[in-house]
Amino acid sequence: MKVQYKSSAYPPPFLRVQQHVTEEVHFFSPKKVEVFEYCTLSDGCRRMYTDKDALAEYETHPILPPCEVSYYNLFINGVLQPPSAYCVEKGKLLLITVDVPIRHAPIILQMIKL
Fold it and tell me: Is the pLDDT assigned to residue 36 strictly greater than 80?
């Protein structure tokens, strides 16, 4: 048996027509950032450290020249050093402070490329 419904028996459906809104959405993808680290230990005497002084067990990277790096961060014994406290050349890190780090203090040079 077929059942027929009268369309007038039910109220019309409530439909809301969405207005067309043109909206521009911009997505910015982050730049590719590469971070390299050079790690060594202070001997308590020297101010210059080279690639040969790197600690092999920490998979350290050779010291990159300033023309290949966006910026450097130097940490001595876990403390961030100001850029005026050191000088970087290809394969060399030179501390230009009055005192030298204590013996066995970790020296970490972070090299960041953008």
Answer: yes
